[in-house]
Structures are given as structure tokens and as C-alpha cells.
Amino acid sequence: MxxxxxxxxxRALNQQARQRALAAVLGASPASSLPLLASDxxxxxxxxxxxxxxxxxxxxxxxRALSSLMLALPATHSLSLSLLISEQDNSALVSLxxxxxxxxxxxPSHASTREALSLxxxxxxxxxxxxxxxxxxxxxxxxxxxxxxxxxxxxxxxxPLNQAELPPPGYLRAEDTVLGELDRLASDxxxxxxxxQITTLIHWATEFAGLVGSFDKPNYVNVNLxxxxxxxxxxxxxxxxxxxxxxxxIFSVAGRRNAxxxxxxxxxxxxxxxxxxxxxxxxxFTQPPLEQRLEQIQRLLERYQDAGGTQPIxxxxxxxxxxxxSPLAPExxxxxxxxxxxxxxxxxxxxxxxxxxxxxxxVIVELPRTLPAGQHQQLEQEQRLCNALLESMQLATDTQxxxxxxxxxxxxxxxxxxxxxxxxxxALAPGADREEDGQPGLPIARDWLLGQPxxxxxxxxxxxxxxxxxxxxxxxxxxxxxxxVPAGAPFGAIQVESDGCTLCQACVAVCPTSALSxxxxxxxxxxxxxxxxxxxxxxxxxxxxxxxxxxxFSAQPExxxxxxxxxxxxxxxxxxxxxPFGSTATITAMQTKLASHAYxxxxxxxxxxxxxxxxxxxxxxxxxxxxxxxxxx
Length: 633
Prior knowledge:
- The chain is α/β, with parallel strands linked by helices.
- It is built from 21 helices and 27 strands.
- A hairpin with a 2-residue loop joins β6 (about 125-130) and β7.
- The longest helix is centred in the N-terminal third of the chain and has 25 residues, at about 1-25.
- Mean pLDDT is about 85; it is low at about 30-40 and about 430-445.
């Protein structure tokens, strides 16, 4: 009886602590103590303009039935409709109510196979080519009035023209329920007046009316090419953002020397899966920046603990989610500190690990039932990576075997209460800066993770700080060797065949994160595993092909964070002035490779042993002595 009373008392205290923490952090002024990023302050909104020029694509029976409905509905009758017959359905055409034909016969129309069609663009600016012919120009242009694009696309086909999981704004695909009602309407035009049996179709058709006018949205994602690991010196490296985008809004654009990443802001939905996938922080979300969310998490956990709450759960969910549809039991919801997101894929392993290091007992990600398959797969990959990193430190579960990271799908039926999980550490109260006796491990200082406002760490450094802190909480000694990580994870080392390496430093030049570094005083190559994102640029750029990527994760901070010497050589002095200008291995390799070159025969071979200044001087002296030598240059 006493135990039950204590549990009820703690439940009430947890519920009260949760309410106080949420009110203190989320109910405060929206202004953050973090300074606005420069890119946010000057970011212009993305604007769409749509006049309602709507193209219907599909079989003729469906097109004429839908156009008949749209012309009859008060909300959509003002749309400018065009028809593109892309599929043949003779049986439906035979049963087509002739009233649909009469209503739609004056509309511009064209027929083409889907294989000949090429669609691109977005709301207010769709370009559709049929065998190279611009259909907007062919169907809508009259006299001096030239029309190049459609504003809206209604795709009624079995195979959509746009295959993206998140299609561009203004492109609406008809689902099976809509198509079923449309087929009924095609054979019975009287349903237009009655509206019976086609309520879903009417709602879907009415959506087009709401897409006429001018619309603004934020530019969700910024790109910092200075730290992007996609390309360098003509080689392609990291492509994680390209494969993670459900909207097909990210492109690799060829440049004069290097390819670079670009994001089409008109196609971007702000799902931010690319931001989670980017290992260097080159992609950053602007609404809001991740630093503000991490500060919010830290303060939530601090306020919750300060109010007497225990075993806090950090729960990620959609802004529109409600506790009534949560799959968690009421007892567990009382301990949930919620982080509401516009898109659930905007979070990932680095943020979940930070939450655990800041004092969360568990991290729960509530997945909406309508989550696109690509985003679901992305979050599962992030979960596997997060668990692999935690398992390397024996922190993936508590002593009872309960997981610290849980992905759970929305359900109308609450699950049974979860087993209470013991915390890894206790969140700091505001102003605390040291550990206290008798408590689990604590962060060292209030700003240990986010740093000072004028010196915020980058994404990788922030993650390294979290991993360093978690390593101190491990109950057992950490493994001496690297552990396996999921395929494509941005963790690992490199192997260099020392005998074949000439220390040319080509790998250092292309490394986007400074994981590879040279010695300023002597020829040497060093490697810092904690900075390596396994982009592969060093492997591709090595002229001797002696570099190999070795994926894995080293849990010990001293192994991951300390530079490791891979090769060192003696400097080679210029035979003319004595200035060291390269490694002995590099000069030896040059002599071997150029031994048969006509320009480096006889005394010319000595120039390979000269620094660049002395080499030029020697060439000019030779020209002065022998003018005909210019013909050989």
C-alpha cells in the first residue's frame, strides 16, 4: 500500500513537473537567447503565383467527368481547364455519360502517350513537353498571347508523371478513393448535381480552387558549400542528402572544377531529412535552426528536474499530434516533454544522442501513420546508427534491457505502460557548473554543448562533445577497437599503405573536415577519426591509390579525438638553395615517373631536385646560354 501511494505521489509530481517545464520553456516569449543566423535575417521568402491554368491528365472518360464536375462547382468553375489524354480505357469510354462530353467538348485537349511526356516545375510554373512540344504553348496560346506554363496539374493516371514521394506544390495525384468515385461519376452525370457518392472527389477537386493566387513560404534549408563534402578536385564524395530527399529537390550541379549541391526551394517541402543526413552541417534548417531546438531541450529537462520530476521522456511528434491519439499509456505521457515538429524527419541521431546526454531517460519518436515510406526509411536508418553508437558504449538499453530510443507509430489504442528506465545522467539546474555528490554523471557546465553565443560549435564538433560525454557514463571499459556501424554511416577511419604514400598532400587538400592534416614543419600525414565523415574524397583523389576507407566507430574519446600519425618522411632540400620543398618520397616518385621524359634528361633531370624558384631560374639561365632551348619548352 505504501509503495502504491509513493508511486501515485511521484506520478502527480511528474505531471506537475511536466506542466511547469512546458509552460516555462514553450510558454515563454518566442524570442530565443540564441542570435539569429545571418542567413535567416536576410532570407527572402519563396513566392508562387498561380492564375488557375489547370491541366488534367489521364484517360478520356475520367478527364471529361472531372472537367464536367469542376465547371459545375462554384469554387472551381473559374479555373482554366485543359485536357491531356494519356491513357486508353475503351470500356470506360463506352459507358461514359454523353452529358460529360457535351460539357467539356470546348476545352483545349491533346492526346499523347505517357512515355512521350516530360513534366517539370512547380505551382504556377509547370512545363510539360510531349515529344519536345510545349503543350502549354500549343493549347493555351492565342495570337500575340504566348503561354509557356501551366499553373496546376491534376494527375488521374495509374502511373503518376511525378514519382517523388513529396510531389511539388500544385501537382495533385488522385488517390484510389478519388478515382473510384470519378469512375462512378463518369457513367452517371447526375451525380454532379446531387453530390451523392462523390463527396471525397468533390473535396479533392475543390483543393485546386485554394491554389489560385500568390503564396509565400520560407526558404527552409541553407547550403554552406565551404564545409560540404559532396565534391572536390573533380571527384564526387558524399551523396547522403541526395538520397534522403523525398521531394527530389536536391541536385548535383557540375561546375568548372567541382560539382556542388543545390536545392530547388520551390520543390523543397521542408521535411529536413537532408539536414539530418548531412554529416558536416553544410545543410542547415532555418525554421528554426537546430541550435535553438537543442537549447529548448536542455531547458525543458532542467525545469522538469528542478520541479521534482523523474525519468523524463523526450518525445518528438508532429505539431498537429494530440495526446488522445498517442500510442503511449497515460502514465508515460505524464513524463513526456514534447518537441513539436512540422516534419518528423527533421530530427536524427545527433539530436537524440544529445537529448540523452542532457538528461533524458528515453527518446521517443512518434511516427504519423501517413509518413511517406522514404522518410520512414530515413528515420529507421537514423535509429540503427544511434543504437550502434550507444551499443558501442553499452548504453543502448538500461540494466533491465529497456531501449533508450524508441520509434513508435501513432495508434488510437494506447499501449501498456513502459518499463521505467534509469537515467544516464541528471540535467543541470540553471547556473550549475559542477557535479554533486550522490548524483549520476553530470555535464561539466551549462554551456558544455552549445558553447557561447558568439562561438557555437559546428554539427560534427557538437556531436563529438555528446559522444565524449556519453563515453564517460559507460559502466564498463570501452572496446579498444572500432565497432561495426550501419552501411553509409559517417563514421570510420582510413588505411594508408605507407610504402606507397609519397606525402603529396592531395588527400589533405580535398578533405572537407580537416580529418586529414599535414605537418607544417616536416613532411607528415595525420588523421583525426572524430572528424572523418567517410565521404571518400581522399580515396578518390589519391594519385597513388593507397588510401582505403574503413567504416566503424571508436567509442574511446582519446582514440577518436587525438590526431594519429599515418606517415612521416624527411624533408628534401633543394640542391641549389638548400630550402626544403617536399618530402623525399615525393621527389623520388617524381624522378621515377619522369625518368623517360625528354625534358628531364641529362642535366635537366637535376631540376626535379630544385624548388620551384630555383627551377625557374635554371630554365632562364639555360635559355640565355642556348636560345634554341626555347623551342623545347
